[in-house]
Amino acid sequence: MTPDLVSALRPLLTAEASAEAYAAGVDAGDLEQAVWLRLLERLDAEGPPRDPQEWLRRAVRSEARRTRRTSRLERPYAIEPVDDGDGGPEQLALAAARGRALRAAVRRLPGRCPRLMEALLSPEDLTYREIAGELGISQGSLGPERSRCLGCLRRLLTPEVAAR
Q1: How far apart are CA 69 and CA 108, in angstroms?
Q2: CA 136, CA 127: separation in Å to the nearest integer?
């Protein structure tokens, strides 16, 4: 999408989406995003519309109608659905296996990462100050170190997750 097309259509889209959003029962920003997506799809398939302003007005109205139809079909639950997440022995066994796999992967991390990740995973729910004191590093370097360790852990676990 060309920057000049975006900058030319943005004020019109904001105004049109704001005008249609309330009646459609949708957030104006969500409506704008849906129309931008439709424009991207159109540009990819057919190229730019001959009259971009008119196309945009019709797209906003069409998305608003689609949203109204969809919301009429959706019904909220009368009561909250039951959460079966922690119920049976199978779920407990699977959770325990995931915990063991995570801790095994944490032990294979390089440098200070295993100690840092174990401290972060501790059931004692340690604060950053307590973790920094335990590891002997500054509290300010804890965040970047944690990010680096999580990146290493993500790279380490990606092949294992993909293999399953």
Answers
A1: 52
A2: 14
The answer to whether the CB of 87 falls within 8 A of the CB of 105 is no
Does residue 58 contact residue 33 with C-beta atoms inside 8 Å?
no
pLDDT in tens, the chain (164 residues): 567 878 888 999 999 999 998 888 888 888 899 999 999 888 888 888 889 999 999 999 999 998 888 877 777 777 776 665 556 788 888 888 888 988 899 999 999 899 999 998 888 888 888 998 888 888 888 888 999 999 999 888 887 665 55
Q: Distances from the Cα of 105 to the Cαs of 64, 70, 123, 124, 134, in angstroms? A: 48, 44, 18, 21, 21
Helix (H) or strand (E) holding 143: helix 142-163
Distance CA 118, CA 149 (A): 11
The contacts of residue 68 (CB under 8 Å, 6+ apart) are 23, 24, 25
Cα separation, 28 vs 34, in Å, equals: 10
Closest to 16 in 3D by CA, of 4, 1, 6, 31? 31
